[in-house]
Specification:
This protein has helices at about 15-25, 30-40, 50-60, 65-90, 105-110, 115-125, 130-150, 155, 185-220, 225-239, and strands spanning about 160-170, 175-180. It has a two-stranded antiparallel sheet with strand order 1-2. The protein is globular. Helix 2 runs antiparallel to helix 3 (about 50-60) and helix 3 runs antiparallel to helix 4 (about 65-90). The mean pLDDT is about 90. It has one domain (about 25-155, about 185-230). By secondary structure, it is mainly α. The chain is about 60% helix and about 5% strand.
Length: about 240
């Protein structure tokens, strides 16, 4: 067990229920929530193993846990690029009785699993999985979201963003001085600014990454003709 007595104090059952009720009241039924619920229940055909991550991000956004949503979207972003390269290079290879399952994708996993996001994006561009323009946009997203959030680098997240602060001295309370401060250099301010940044950008960032996954899943389906035929038949039956 962990000793948390320094910061924790006992909360009554009534207060616990009250706070849980406040969390549930964050959910607002609007067009954005409807879209997120639809995405949570969407069906990928090749990258389906990523759907548990996608579902958790949707839950975070529905509950307005936007910093958590960005952090997990960063993971999803890097994960999908690796998974796509592994599957693309395997050229539709499936499990077989001739070899151990864990060896099926061993070569591709060893090639891409420990690589950083940028070289893997370059590989996707070189293999024409994504276009040059898409690669540039994804690198912009990497620099805007993944590096600042995953590495907690406020100098990258806010760069030279400044705001006015009014200082008052306890010894001279009538003297008020204005100072322009760099947000990234003030710990209290940069964490508050991060909340606002996440509230503004989290949903848009996730939707852009999900749109990428949607397109890549469709492209990867060409590697699996039988699955593609099955999906096409399903779509015809549902239309």
């Amino acid at each position: 067990m962990f000793d948390l007595s320094y910061s924790l104090h006992v909360i009554s059952e009534e207060e616990i229920r009250k706070q849980l009720n406040e969390i549930s009241q964050r959910v607002i039924l609007d067009d954005n929530t409807r879209l997120l619920v639809c995405i949570k229940n969407s069906k990928l055909h090749v990258l389906s193993h990523l759907q548990s991550i996608i579902a958790e991000i949707c839950d975070c956004l529905i509950l307005n846990c936007n910093q958590a949503a960005i952090t997990l979207t960063n993971h999803l972003f890097e994960n999908v690029i690796k998974q796509v390269l592994i599957l693309w290079d395997s050229k539709g290879r499936c499990f077989s009785n001739e070899q151990l399952m864990e060896n099926t994708f061993k070569e591709e996993i060893n090639k891409y699993d420990d690589k950083d996001l940028e070289p893997n994006l370059n590989q996707c561009r070189n293999k024409k999985i994504i276009t040059k323009e898409e690669c540039k946009r994804l690198k912009d997203l990497k620099n805007k979201f993944r590096i600042p959030f995953s590495h907690a680098s406020y100098t990258k997240l806010f760069a030279d963003v400044k705001m006015p602060i009014w200082k008052v001295s306890l010894s001279k309370p009538n003297e008020v001085k204005e100072e322009m401060v760099n947000i990234s250099m003030i710990p209290l301010l940069n964490t508050l600014a991060q909340v606002k940044f996440a509230n503004t950008n989290a949903a848009r960032y996730f939707l852009e990454i999900y749109a990428l996954i949607n397109d890549l899943d469709k492209k990867l389906l060409d590697l699996y003709p039988e699955t593609k035929l099955f999906v096409k038949c399903q779509q015809i039956n549902q239309s």
